[in-house]
Amino acid sequence: MRLEMDHSEEWEPSVQIGRDAEEEGTHLSENELNHLNEVEVDLRRQEIQSLLSTTRGQEGDDWYLIPSVYLDKFFNVEVGTFKELCHVLGPIDCKSIVDSNGRLYEEDVEPVGTFNVPPLVFHKFREWFGVLGTPIVRSLISNTESGAMEVERYPAMFHVHQLSSKKSHHHSHNHYGHHSQSHSQSHYNNHQSKSLPLVTVSRTKTMAQLVSAIEQKLDKKGIRLWFIDGGGEWPQIISPSTFVFDVEYKRLVTPNHLSQTLRVNGIVHEVYHLVVEQYDKSLAAFPLDNYVASMIKDASTFNQILAMGGVTGLQNLGNTCYMNSALQCLLHVPEINSYFLFNLYKQELNNDNPLGYKGAVANSFGNLLKQMFDIGCGSKPPQSIAPRDFKSTIGRYSSMFYGYLQQDSQEFLSWLLDALHEDLNRIHVKPYNDKPELKDDEIDDPLAIVRLANICWDLHKLRNDSIIVDLFTGMYKSTLVCPDCSKTSITFDPFNDLTLPLPVQKKWYHTFTIVDLTEFGSKFINKILVFEVELDYSSNYEMLVSYLSNSLNIPKEYLFLYELFRNSFYTDFQADNIKNKFVPIGDLIKKEDEVVVYIIPHDPESDTIVPVLNFVPDEDLSYRRDINFGLPLFIVLNKKNNADTKSFGIIRRKLETAIKVLTNVNFEDEYRSLQLTHKKWYKKSDFPSLIESSDDQEMYSDPVDDEEEYDSDVSLANPYISGNFGFEVKRYAEDIDYKPKYRLGQEYSSRLTAAPADKLQLGLSYVPLQQINNISEAVNLIDLLPKKKKEYYYYAEIDQHIEEATAAADSDDSNKGPSSSSDLTEDGFIIVGKSGQSEEKLPVLLEDDTSDHQPPSPSSIQPPLDSESVSVSNINSPQKEMGDCSEEAVVVNKTTPLIVKGTTLICCWNPACYDKLFGDSDKQAWAKPVRIPNPSITNTKHKKEVKTISLYDCLEQFSRPEVLGEHDLWYCPNCKDHKQATKTIQLWSTGDILTIHLKRFHSARAFSDKIDALVDFPIEGLDMGKFISKPHNMDKSNEIYDLIAVDNHYGGLGGGHYTACVKNFRDNKWHYFNDSHVSEMPNPLEVVNSRAYLLFYKRRVPDNILGGDDLQSKLNAGYEALKAQFDTRQARILAIHQQLEQYEEQEAEEEDNHESPAHVQVNLEDETQTNLYDDDDIYESNRKEDLKKTRSNSINIINNDNNKVRKMRLISKEDSMKLVSVNNDELGDDAESGSE
Questions:
Q1: Which terminus of the chain is less hemmed in, N or C, by CB atoms within 10 Å?
Q2: CA torsion sign, 236 to 239 to 244 to 247?
Q3: In sequence order, what are the residues at sequence separation of 6 or more whose Cβ sits closer than 8 angstroms to the Cβ of residue 924?
């Protein structure tokens, strides 16, 4: 019942006596009125005094607290009238006696004293003066020593937790941690407690009333209460396992407790924590009943518990099989398992290590292990769990394992071992150490080598000391010998996992197309060939070129390799030669790649190599496009004096020679048969039409007498064949600044040095790696010639123009066209000459449009264009640097080369000529190339070689000397130079847990290729003694290992799948772990298969002491501590079981009496007959304690007996029951109201 006033109403004092006199019409004098007012004040004070003196209270009655200064003023302030008294006192200020949270102050620090008054006194005051704030109501409670009634200033407050089988979001604390109980004010203000439901009940109320209040608060029926230790660390929702094993103190409220008051049950402190469990109708039981019953049923001894479990799978979160398989192997290492299960890792966490992860990886690993192996007091282990927290942790600290891409299991294991080591490193301050070396005179001294090894190990332990070092770390002995001075260097380095090569030469095969562009003295009859290559898979590009050079007997500098796609260049292997040296050839060139090897003889000092592409118009003219055909070609031009690069004739002849490679037709004979005469050089007199039509006869006069002498103006022009006969030559030049990389070492780099922008680069400077789709961007090469030379190359067409124009002028029919007669060779070649032009003649676009049909002069004849040509674009056109070729710019710089940097020559073929030379596959030389036999390739190359490799073979292969590569040189301190030293790596020592990585992948990151050969490894008795390089006189008898786990990899290119075969040390059986699926392996020999990737061996020792005496001592102590915790857990289960049995017995008794425990009727008058020290008290230890937080008030009023009677007042039981309610606010203003 809450007593509050409406603060919106104005407070008005009561003046009832004066009003009654006025209403009766009595006329009183001023003195009589003053007397009446004084009498009224006295009467009211006497009334209050009488109530305080005569009111007697009993335990459980509710009294009010008001400011003591207010009551003192009421009795003692001097006033003349009651109205004046009202103005002086004002309303009762209840806010002044509580803090901002609405709680009463501690008595020794309260700013305003308080006084306890019975309800009738408070009601009078509220009627007369009003109230500010919420009235403060408290119950009376008897003092156990004096028996006097006192006000209960601080009722008991109960923080309510709920029991649920659903997972709590509360973070795990110490698994067996103890939580002390605090009853201080600071405890109440704990943040965790503030978030919990709060119920406040007087200690004079019964347990049944507390149950009813909690049911009302939670809106639940049929609940059962447990008192627990608080500490403020328990979440609102508590799981049964947490409640049973982690909550140290817990006491069940039984049916016998319900009729007793809270104080009788030992509730004397201010704050308590309760756990509520609700009756489950579907199970016809409370949650703990079934849980504890199952725990009792499955109870086992500690040793039996340690022999259970270890068969829990790990769910695949998405390409996490690599992680799951490695984790299963590592989690089943007995020493690792015990170290984390016994919580020893928490004692060695290194949160300050800059190389570590602040203990996050170790904590996450430990939590995962406990989920899989800590099966409590005998409960069945889960079939599988989802390692999401662990995956999130490793992804947060390693970008390699962030996300859900497939990764390599060995790389993950290596990273995890290193991360665990750094998180658990016992060395917090690492000293700096120089790496020691042997003196030259000690190289052959075994004792000196042993001393060096011991020093290196001790120095390593000064910086690295953890369980990982104790178990996994061994040492390599590395020996380097200089090939020149025989300087020997011996060093020792630690390792956690041993990577062994497989003694299998994985072969790589590829068939290449060979294009021989040798002009003279070729070694091959056919120019296009195919050749199959066999190399070790680990070979690189340089080895491939050397192989081709030796097999074909061609100098390496003449070989150029390109990948083609749709008859165009796609990859230039010369451009990235340095990068290609470090890429396995199988990764660089795939099986389906079309790679062409060009043989291009040239002089790197004087020659430039120009790429050539061939195009023909599409047969479907609606597309108006040109199609690339055949294989790309190259021509070699001499750069000295720019002779070849300026001569169109030389370029044309070299193109004709190169094109012969692509056709099976006798191209040269057919082409030369078109010439009416066969001269080495032609002179001006062979071009009569040019002389006859010229206004300047001297310009075309013959300056030479020898008709065989070369004329630079005539050049290589032929009067019978046009310069564009068969195909037009176009120049496609990109605006590039090509900077090639070295190709085959520094000896060939001179030809690839980047040239200035205005100079043509020597060697092969450029190939277009993008497909050229629009050849209209290319310029006709003849158009770049000076005007005079251009006329000679177009002479056959110019002469035909002149004859046609003359014939048209002499004809009577002005519309009659040129002669349709044509002369063809037997093979169908078109002859363009004086005898006329055929219907298949090379097209001429420019026609005479003059009305008089005068024959065009040589100066006015423009070179004809192909019918598919369009005007030359200025985009990427070399004309910008060559000058304008139009008629206005007749004078062209004769020294300007036709070939510039970035040039690709394009041969645009006439369809008729294309059909004649390449029209069907029989004519195409590239369609059916001749195969060159390679005797070095065996006939059985395609058969899979079935060979069993022993693990001992791999160990021997590991220790074989090898010569360092030219890119992995060693600096010899004697020679003061880098040398290709001989390197030998041997095992000096191995860890107690030996992890062996079988190197099945040449490139693990890309899963480039896999060796599927079966490696036969022993399950028991692996003898590592003969592979340890320690001196023979040192003991090697303790080098026997037994297999405990195998990490398997299925598949090859693209990733595949990982699984694990593990010997579970708990049941001593082999199990197969495939992510979440786990199955027993009846035959342990099944672990030996071709999928084995990582092998885990454990050293065999008589006393089974691994990791050293110190580690074993810690593990033994951890075992004893865990056993003690186990015993405590068992005791807690039994204690709860006993309480549940007691509850059931008392509940059965209640049912016999036809009385429901949830509706016990409480007789407060009989409470005094209850034994306060009954053995069933909830808090037995508190039953003899004095009540705290109670007080007696003392104030000087008229009646001195008020000190005793002011605490007492009887109220009805109905009012008492109404005042038992729930505080719906956490710590609001209502906290001190009667509802508390």
A1: N
A2: negative
A3: 630, 662, 663, 664, 918
